């Protein structure tokens, strides 16, 4: 399965009552594919506020995205959790709906051992024919999938890659030792180009909601050997990459990017509690940041 180089972890649009805004979801999918050049979309991932979505909402989002995207891009369903049997159930239901793959986060809160994490992902992989992207994000999960365990998992045929947020060092170690067809993606926008430089495959991005087309130009320039152009585009994009998360103090994802999308005319609504929208200072910061787009 080829998910492409630029994968957008899509926000979930809400209306003013906090319900999914289906009209805006349709428009957002079109925009991310046609204007921001996403090769694939992650639906109901962290950026999609998966912790506050019900199973019914997630499954309807998966079905809706598959139907709306058609053949234009791949749909990757966020079906991972810290409950193995629940992750298996959601993955199997997503498979029935026609998604192209699933993203499985490292189990959070219960802090499994490396062997426990291996068996968790192995059990899910054995329950489905879908291609699987692992998702290691220790800043959120506390437990971190080690290089050794990731490489063990890479031997399972339908575990085809990982979204790695631990460090560029870990990405480098994975690239140097993983099977040739195992794809390593960065989950940190600011590391997109450095990840390509050490042999990684691409980026699972938040910033691509607003600068995806330029990110695609950066990726293509690097792949075509035009490193100078790629580096210049990286430098241009870097303040946006950092600003969406620092804003000026750390602001939980996706609060900043949702507000930025609203400034660009996309009625994606706010975030569900316990997340909150940007305060007055953060609003001013994002307004200024958008002038760089």
Automatic annotation (TrEMBL):
Its main location: cytoplasm. This is 4-hydroxy-tetrahydrodipicolinate synthase. CDD domains: DHDPS. It holds the Pfam family DHDPS. Belongs to the DapA family. It comes from the Bacteria. GO terms for molecular function: 4-hydroxy-tetrahydrodipicolinate synthase activity. One of its GO terms (biological process) is diaminopimelate biosynthetic process. Pyruvate binds at residues 47, 204. The active site is at residues 135, 163. The gene is dapA. Pathway: Amino-acid biosynthesis; L-lysine biosynthesis via DAP pathway; (S)-tetrahydrodipicolinate from L-aspartate: step 3/4.
């Amino acid at each position: 399965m080829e998910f492409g180089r630029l994968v957008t972890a899509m926000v979930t649009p809400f209306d003013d009552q906090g319900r999914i805004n289906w009209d805006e979801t349709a428009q957002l999918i079109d925009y991310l594919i046609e204007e921001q050049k996403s090769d694939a979309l992650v639906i109901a991932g962290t950026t999609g506020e998966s912790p506050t979505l019900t199973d019914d909402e997630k499954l309807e989002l998966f079905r809706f995205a598959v139907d709306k995207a058609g053949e234009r891009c791949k749909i990757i369903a966020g079906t991972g959790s810290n409950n193995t049997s629940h992750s298996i159930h959601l993955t199997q239901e997503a498979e029935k709906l026609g998604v192209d793959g699933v993203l499985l986060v490292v189990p959070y809160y219960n802090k499994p051992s490396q062997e426990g994490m291996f068996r968790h992902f192995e059990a899910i992989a054995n329950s489905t024919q879908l291609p699987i992207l692992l998702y290691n994000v220790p800043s959120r999960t506390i437990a971190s999938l080690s290089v050794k365990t990731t490489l063990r998992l890479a031997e399972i045929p339908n575990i085809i890659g990982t979204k790695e947020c631990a460090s560029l060092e870990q990405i480098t170690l994975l690239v140097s030792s993983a099977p040739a067809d195992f794809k390593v993606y960065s989950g940190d926008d600011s590391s997109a180009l450095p990840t390509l430089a050490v042999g990684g495959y691409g980026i699972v991005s938040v910033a691509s909601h607003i600068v995806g087309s330029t990110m695609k130009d950066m990726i293509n320039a690097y792949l075509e050997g035009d490193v100078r152009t790629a580096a210049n585009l990286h430098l241009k994009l870097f303040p946006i990459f950092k600003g969406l998360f620092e804003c000026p103090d750390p602001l939980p994802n996706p609060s900043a990017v949702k507000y930025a999308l609203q400034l660009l005319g996309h009625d994606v609504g706010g975030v569900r509690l316990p997340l909150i929208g940007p305060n007055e200072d953060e609003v001013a910061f994002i307004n200024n940041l958008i002038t760089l787009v």
